[in-house]
Specification:
30% helix, Glutamine Phosphoribosylpyrophosphate, subunit 1, domain 1, eight-stranded mixed β-sheet, four-stranded antiparallel β-sheet, alpha+beta
Length: 305
């Protein structure tokens, strides 16, 4: 097995973020990447690293996952998430679950349980409660910013600016194993029960022995092009990771969608591409006993190795 530099790359959603929030979101993705890298530094697996990174973002109200998730048409939070282990092909996902602060941890529990891939709706709480998860109080995940946006949304759905995004992470560990994870509150003003790309293997999240990817953006379009599986398949056919990411986003745009993607291949090379004004990203890699972390609001401003 060739030597690789363990690392984790995270995203905080593709869209448009007001300039006054750039520092806030950069700090958030930086903290998440550092948390994932700390797992790798301790000898942990890529699967654990992406889970740790995404959990940080779920608790950060600057992003659209967990606390601070967008509200559906009824003014409620319903979240989606998935996590995939590239070494084994195992995947766990949850979708349209109300009042769930740590969706990625419950998705991991689905993966570890092994009986199913995707659980959806309020009934997920029967599964989660049996494993010690506690449901958030109604409204506890709703922030004033998202409540205000939802109120505006009811009046002018198409005029709103998207300023908080889906979160995700990809990682490679010291054994060269890959993993990906994605978590989201979905689309502002969505119908109750709507399931987007994030919990669907091959759409918002995919990992194999060849590559791993997490997507964000127009969920319906991402589903139609099975973006992350298509990206990793391009790598498997010999494409360089940067070219594979570029082509995947170009296909998304050609189908009328917008968004972004982050990816890592089995050589430890990372890529981040988006067809939107911004997509907060951060890369953390091990450097001996140290962890190097870099963050940017636009992927092009982040040096990827």
């Amino acid at each position: 097995m060739h030597a690789v530099t363990p690392g984790v790359l995270v995203h905080g959603g593709a869209g448009r973020i007001a300039a006054e929030r750039h520092d806030e979101v950069q700090a958030g993705v930086r903290a998440a990447a550092a948390a994932g890298a700390a797992v790798l530094a301790a000898g942990g697996a890529a699967l654990d690293a992406v889970q740790a990174a995404v959990r940080v973002l779920e608790d950060d109200p600057a992003f659209n996952a967990g606390t601070g998730a967008v509200l559906n048409r009824d003014g409620l939070v319903e979240v989606d998430a998935s996590i995939m282990d590239g070494a084994t092909g195992r995947v766990g996902a949850v979708a349209a679950v109300p009042d769930l602060a740590e969706a990625i941890a419950v998705a991991r529990a689905v993966l570890d349980d092994g009986a199913h891939v995707l659980l959806a709706g309020p009934a997920v709480w029967d599964f989660a409660a049996a494993r010690g998860f506690v449901r958030a109080a109604p409204g506890a995940l709703v922030t004033p910013r998202m409540r205000a946006r939802w109120q505006d949304e009811r009046q002018r759905l198409e005029a709103l600016e998207r300023d908080g995004g889906t979160v995700g992470a990809v990682a490679i560990d010291a054994r060269g194993q890959l993993a990906a994870a994605t978590s989201t509150g979905g689309t502002l003003g969505k119908l109750p029960g709507r399931i987007g790309d994030s919990p669907l293997p091959g759409c918002g999240t995919w990992a194999s022995r060849v590559g791993a990817a997490s997507a964000t953006g127009d969920g319906e379009a991402i589903i139609r092009v099975t973006l992350t599986r298509a990206l990793v398949d391009r790598i498997a056919r010999g494409a360089a990771i940067a070219a594979a990411a570029d082509e995947a986003i170009a296909e998304l745009v050609a189908h009328g969608g917008s968004g972004g993607v982050i990816a890592v291949d089995a050589h430890g090379r990372f890529a981040a591409v988006h067809a939107t004004e911004t997509m907060p990203v951060a890369l953390a890699q091990l450097d001996g006993d140290a962890i190097r972390v870099a963050a940017a609001v636009r992927a092009a401003d982040l040096a990827l190795a």
